[in-house]
Design brief:
Strand content: 15-25%
Order of helices and strands: EEHHHHE
Number of helices: 4
Largest sheet: 3 strands, antiparallel
Helix content: 40-55%
């Protein structure tokens, strides 16, 4: 559904794919938000939340949302795009 490149302060970048169940958890926790909102008018707060939910579910990150926000940078990438290696 949505692929994000995560770059931790102390490591190599990695990709996390947010699937329908990750977006569902985000929608249920975010009053009045929908997947359409995320695609049409994304904001960093929501992107970080979705990325954190997906990363935790996939056991790529074990910390809190606050730790995720302060220790990583994120970037949306297309489904078929690979991150720039440089």
């Amino acid at each position: 559904m949505l692929t994000l490149k995560v770059t931790p302060d102390d490591g190599e970048p990695w990709n996390v794919k947010a699937h329908t169940r990750d977006v569902l958890v985000w929608e249920k926790a975010s009053k009045g938000k929908s997947f359409t909102d995320l695609l049409v008018s994304p904001n960093l707060t929501d992107l970080y939340k979705v990325a954190h939910i997906a990363a935790k579910r996939q056991q790529l990150f074990s910390g809190t949302l606050q730790e995720f926000e302060t220790q990583t940078d994120i970037e949306m990438i297309g489904e078929d795009e690979e991150p720039d290696p440089t």
